[in-house]
Design brief:
With about 100 residues, the chain is an alpha+beta fold. The protein contains three helices and nine strands, in the order αβββαβββαβββ. The two termini are about 30 Å apart. About 10% of the residues are buried.
């Protein structure tokens, strides 16, 4: 049973990997880097989208859901060499890097 769990964890980790670093050639992109550095290392993104973060105001029963585009940041998607890399940028800085195979 324990071996099955370990094997399943390795399989899942190979499919999607979210981290704070990404190796690009002989350089490394890390969380906290500027969006200019992302463009320097990875080039123009294949697509961009706004990541929305919601927050609730009011009581537990009848709260109002507020969507704020500025707080969620942008997700830049790159497709290269059978991989999709998603870089999340908030306030001009990298906050998350996600890389997975197609």
């Amino acid at each position: 049973m324990r071996i099955c769990l370990i094997v399943a964890l390795f399989v899942f980790s190979a499919v999607v990997q979210a981290s704070s670093t990404l190796r690009v050639g002989n350089q490394v992109l890390t969380a906290g880097d500027s969006q200019e550095r992302v463009t320097d290392l990875l080039g123009k993104p294949s697509s961009k989208s706004h990541r929305r973060r919601s927050r609730t105001r009011g009581s537990r029963r009848g709260g109002v859901r507020v969507i704020d585009n500025n707080q969620g940041g942008e997700q830049w998607r790159y497709r290269h060499d059978g991989h999709v890399t998603v870089v999340t940028i908030v306030d001009g800085r990298v906050t998350e890097i996600e890389d997975h195979r197609i």
